Amino acid sequence: MSSTITQPKKAPKNSYQIPPNASEHQRLNRQHELIQEIMLGKVFHSPITHPTQILDVGCGTGAVTYYLGSTFPRAEVYGIDLATILPKPNKPENVTFVQADYHDLLGSEEPHIAPGTMDFVFSRLLISGMTTWPSYIRTCHALLKPNGWLEIQETEFPYYDDSGIVSEEWKWCQAYQAGAKAKGLDLSCAVKAADWMREAGFVDVRTKWYYWPHGEWMADRGHEEYRNLGNFLKREQPRLYQAILSNLVSGMGYSDEEVRALQRDVMETLEVEEGRHKNYWVTFGRKPS
Ligand SMILES: C[S@@+](CC[C@H](N)C(=O)[O-])C[C@H]1O[C@@H](n2cnc3c(N)ncnc32)[C@H](O)[C@@H]1O
Questions:
Q1: Cα dist from 141 to 17, 115, 117, 144, 287, whole Å
Q2: Which of 105-109, 173-177, 241-245, 279-283 has the lowest mean pLDDT?
Q3: Backbone torsions φ then ψ of 114, nearest 5 degrees
Q4: I want to staple 108 with a disulfide (CB 3.0 to 4.6 A). Which of 37, 100, 222, 226 is the partner?
Q5: What percent of the chain has pLDDT over 70?
Q6: What are 284's strand-pairing partners?
């Protein structure tokens, strides 16, 4: 079993909206715990049995990669990310991190990431970096063995409250969506994933969604498992959106003052909590035998 970090020979070409520094790593690790909390202990939903090769795409800090490595000690588990992943002392022996661009999975320098080799391909929260969803999903289909599973977990962009979508008129959301589109991102990827998977040839495609709540209101309505995530998102999301927004709208003709006004709009629109949420979609499907 290997435990190396494979570095790319050529420089990765795409860049993510948030720098992979210590505070971002802390945020991702905490978010991982809280996603597991709302899923009542689950990390993935695919019915995986006795896998021998697993790939975690855009693995971030490797929280899911570690989980998969220790859950399936007989499998080789690969985590791919553009950023360098610094392994922790408790890294399972069967985990290998590969620094590569997920738009070019088949071109990675890791010889084990090859067509027909994977039992499970997992990805989570690639919404702010992935620009080629349908071809990425076709590539995952090619990487999987027959009967292998692909699972995609993503948030859907608009904000809802109890009456429906509330963010359509928000100025920062309009700018955010336009900026994302100009950069080739698809903020509807969460809801399109199932169709993309079927088009790529996956069968038994299933979806499940969870609340991505802004504040504690879900817990106050009896869903205690959402309390910590709600608090965390209320604290973290405005700052995160302000940072991503200024990257997304760069080069679109906004003055610094206009960008600052949009950032203030983020804070103001996200002041309300009751009923406020986005949706978090889990989509999984099987490559036919
Ligand atoms: C929001 S984080 C999610 C990390 C992890 N999947 C999780 O759920 O904790 C997105 C990750 O995608 C990575 N990323 C962005 N663009 C990438 C690319 N072109 N190739 C590989 N990784 C990329 C970033 O470095 C970051 O670690």
A1: 27, 9, 10, 5, 6
A2: 105-109
A3: -135, 160
A4: 100
A5: 94
A6: 151, 206
Report the mean per-residue pLDDT for the chain: 93
Strand 95-99 and strand 76-81: the pairing is parallel
Q: What is the rounded distance in angstroms from the CA atom of residue 214 to the CA atom of residue 100?
A: 33
* CA-based nearest residue to 150, from 137, 134, 168: 137
Q: How far is Cα 152 from Cα 281, in angstroms, rounded to an integer? A: 8
Query: pLDDT tens for residues 122-175?
Result: 999 999 999 999 999 999 999 999 999 999 999 998 999 999 999 999 999 999
CA terminus-to-terminus distance, the chain: 27
Greatest Cα pair distance, the chain, in angstroms, is 56
**Atom 27 (ligand 1) nearest CA:** 60
Which ligand 1 atom minimizes the distance to the CA of 101? Answer: 20
Pocket of ligand 1 (CB under 6 A): 14, 16, 20, 28, 32, 58-60, 63, 81-83, 101-103, 124-126, 129
Domain annotation for the chain: domains and CATH numbers: 5-286 (3.40.50.150)
The 10 Å Cβ neighbour count of residue 103 is 17
DSSP state of 221: T
pTM: 0.94
| Nearest atom of ligand 1 to the alpha carbon of 56 | 6
Amino acid letter at 32? H
Residue 234 token pair:
């209320």
62-82 pLDDT per residue, tens: 999 999 999 999 999 999 999
